[in-house]
Design a protein that fits this description.
With 340 residues, this protein is of the alpha/beta class. It has a single domain (32-233, 266-320), classed as TIM Barrel, CATH 3.20.20.70. Helices cover 30% and strands 11% of the residues. It is built from eleven helices and eight strands. The chain has helices at 21-27, 70-81, 102-111, 133-139, 153-160, 164-177, 204-219, 235-243, 247-256, 284-289, 325-328; strands spanning 40-44, 88-92, 115-120, 143-147, 189-193, 225-228, 271-274, 280-281. An eight-stranded mixed beta sheet has the order 6-5-4-3-2-1-7-8. The protein is globular.
């Protein structure tokens, strides 16, 4: 499969000028893109998952064997202990709950009084051995960000597999029963939406209203907020675009909808992404493309074994490429939803 980079990506409708992300930043007086102090530590515990979704930028699935070991988990939490600026620990995967170290990491991070996020696909809660997981998450005041790409069975099952919507609804009801997502509850339950195909998400506030009405009226389900996420053209979604002859058109859509107002809020400015093997990245998307965080350009990537803390990384140049247009298109996109 051909890989579009800054060197060969061209703006849709313009056959002469390459669309370079760094050049685009500069043209909008947004350059340079430098790291601030680390406020969010995102830990990707691996690619093992009980689902294999069409849009997955991790290329996760039941047959993946890349999983974080206890040694890497312990070193990550050790570094967290010396990272005064880190406020949030964001655990993702794969299905993070399937990693044998997941509950230990949650407990250890909460003992350090960090806010913990679990990025949950919902259906994992129905896996054997996960029956008590909702109560565990509630006990530790873990915020849940749950993937639900639509409020209809047809669209969800098309993207994530047959029966996923029905199972997701059952799991959301269970989360509501333990207090998640209820009005006034401190147990945060937020949902994540991403388009089914090569399009930008609709306005986040408007779609949140639609979700709340549909899920409440049809199923009696409550949640707090909806985050809209743009599909980035990497891994499995990139393959989908290539197979359907839509890759260049989608990249053109992202480039032509570049929004400089999203740049100041890009998550890579204040987030460190730790890979399952301990390598460090500016974001989870860079992680999937192997674009490691480096001391200086051209040097080997940093790992958790070379750091004393996740704080003190400010001022470093953030690695970018053409996929970064996905985070700056339209209203912008991040792990916390729209940016602008």
């Amino acid at each position: 499969m051909a890989v579009l980079t800054n060197d060969n990506l061209r703006i849709l409708g313009d056959n002469s000028s390459p669309a370079n992300f760094e050049a685009t930043l500069s043209a909008h007086d947004c350059r340079p893109l430098l790291r601030e102090e680390t406020r969010t530590l995102q830990i990707n515990v691996g690619k093992f998952c009980n689902q294999a979704c069409h849009h997955c930028h991790v290329d996760a699935g039941p047959k993946r064997t890349e999983v974080m070991t206890r040694e890497v988990a312990e070193r990550t939490i050790e570094l967290l202990g010396g990272s005064a600026t880190v406020e949030v620990v964001d655990i993702t995967g794969g299905a993070p709950e399937l990693n044998s170290n997941f509950r230990w990491m949650v407990s250890a991070a909460r003992k350090q009084w960090r806010h913990v996020i679990d990025r949950c696909n919902l259906t994992v809660l129905a896996q054997p051995g996960m029956e008590d997981l909702p109560e565990f998450l509630a006990e530790h005041q873990v915020e849940i960000i749950a993937s639900l790409p639509c409020y209809t069975a047809e669209n969800v099952d098309k993207q994530r597999g047959g029966g996923v919507f029905e199972k997701s609804v059952r799991m959301l009801k269970i989360l509501n029963r333990v207090g998640y997502g209820l009005p006034g509850s401190s147990l945060a339950l937020n949902l994540a939406y991403n388009p089914l195909g090569p399009s930008l998400p609709p306005p986040q506030d408007r779609l949140e209203g639609d979700y709340k009405k549909q899920l409440r009226d049809r199923f009696g389900i409550e949640f707090h907020h909806l985050f809209t996420l743009t599909n980035l053209p990497i891994k499995r979604f990139a393959n989908f675009l290539q197979l359907n002859g839509q890759h260049d058109a989608y990249m053109g859509l992202l480039v032509n909808h570049f929004n400089p107002r999203a740049v100041p809020n890009l998550m890579c400015r204040s987030l460190v992404s730790v890979g399952w093997d301990g390598k460090l990245y500016d974001c989870d998307f860079n992680q999937m493309l192997g674009l490691g965080m480096t001391p200086v350009p051209g040097t080997p990537g940093l790992t958790i074994w070379e750091l004393d803390s996740f704080s003190g990384l400010s001022g470093r140049r953030i690695r970018t490429d053409s996929h970064c247009f996905g985070c700056t298109a339209g209203t912008g996109s991040s792990c916390g939803g729209a940016l602008a």
